[in-house]
Design brief:
Structural class: alpha+beta
CATH superfamily: Clavaminate synthase-like
Shape: globular
CATH topology: Double-stranded beta-helix
Number of helices: 5
Order of helices and strands: EEHEHEEEEEEEHHEEEEEEHEEEEEE
Strand order of the largest sheet: 1-2-3-18-9-21-5-4
Strand content: 25-35%
Distance between the termini: 60 Å
Radius of gyration: 19 Å
Bound molecules: fe (ii) ion
Helix content: 10-25%
Number of strands: 22
Oligomer: single chain
Length: 306
């Protein structure tokens, strides 16, 4: 056994034991990490992420890395890493939740759910945790799919849903958090056309079925009346958000977490905007086209009425 692992306290994801990446990662260890990642969806490596070099070395075990398309989000000197930090000012929106000006709250989503080729995974390294909040949580959407009753599995197999790009929470149609927007996105972001994806993805590497619900982005199910579509999406979201499918991480500095983006949703709880939090991240490139663009000539999505 080149590495040991144990389930997290909720049974979603694995904690990796015995890896000392500062001393190098052998090819056997890299193969083992990749296999465990595909088996479990989320890997937790406590306390070993001591530098950007370690983050890169761990990240490369899982595939080719994808630099962020917008250069200003990259970590200086490390084009394959992204810097998520409020140390030198805020870039994203601030919302007031329960009286606290909160930065970095991103509800349940899969990354690039609004793209036809989502990334295969991502890796976070906590450089400096905030004093309060700042948790990240994951849902195993393969586990959620397996727990659906047979009738519902049959009903949703083959359906497609529409997903949009959502730079803040304003475009959310389901489970939008109750919060007041205090300040918006500080950068002009590119626009993306809506896409359609199967509501049930078949994982491109494992062949497992997973629910593809990205609550931040999902709008409707193609071909259904709005009431039926909304009711079905809400039923599936309520099922999937059950605590039994979740793992929430209370960060310590130098923790690293890797996730399979096809097979999980994640959310960032956010933290008080006046507390500094610094995270580095890599993105594992996706190579499988999972969906299709919906925008027809003239800017109209084909599923929308004239
Ligand atoms: Fe994300």
């Amino acid at each position: 056994m080149v590495l040991n692992s144990k389930p997290t306290h909720t049974g979603v994801g694995l904690e990796i034991l015995g890896l000392e990446p500062e001393r190098g990662i052998s090819s056997e260890q890299a193969d083992c990490l990749r296999k465990l990642w595909l088996d479990a969806g989320v890997l937790v490596l406590r306390g070993v992420g001591t530098s950007p070099e370690v983050l890169l070395a761990v990240s490369r075990c899982f595939g080719e890395l994808e630099p962020h398309p917008i250069e200003q989000f990259r970590l200086a000197g490390y084009p394959e890493l992204i810097l998520l930090s409020n140390e030198h000012g805020l870039t994203g929106p601030v919302y007031e939740f329960e009286g606290v000006a909160t930065y970095g709250r991103i509800p349940w989503h899969t990354d690039l759910a609004f793209a036809t080729t989502p990334n295969a995974g991502a890796v976070l390294r906590m450089v400096s945790r905030s004093e309060h909040g700042g948790q990240t949580a994951w849902i195993d959407t393969a586990m959620a799919w397996e727990a659906l009753d047979t009738e519902l599995k049959r009903r949703i197999d083959g359906l497609e849903a529409k997903y949009i790009f959502s730079p803040d929470l304003e475009g959310m149609r389901f489970n939008k958090p109750e919060g007041r927007l205090l300040s918006g996105m500080q950068h002009q972001l590119p626009d993306y056309p809506p896409v359609a994806h199967p509501l049930v993805w078949v994982h491109p590497e494992t062949g497992r079925h997973v629910l593809n619900l990205s609550t931040l982005n999902i709008q409707s199910i193609l071909g259904l009346e709005e009431d039926d579509s909304d009711a079905l999406i809400q039923t599936l979201i309520d099922h999937t958000l059950q605590p039994r499918f979740q793992y929430t991480h209370e960060w310590q500095n130098n923790d690293i977490i890797v996730w399979d983006n096809y097979r999980t949703m994640h959310m960032a709880w956010g933290h008080p905007a006046n507390e500094t939090r610094i995270v580095q991240r890599s993105t594992i490139r996706g190579t499988t086209k999972m969906g299709r663009e919906l925008t027809a000539p003239g800017g109209r999505a084909p599923d929308e009425p004239l």
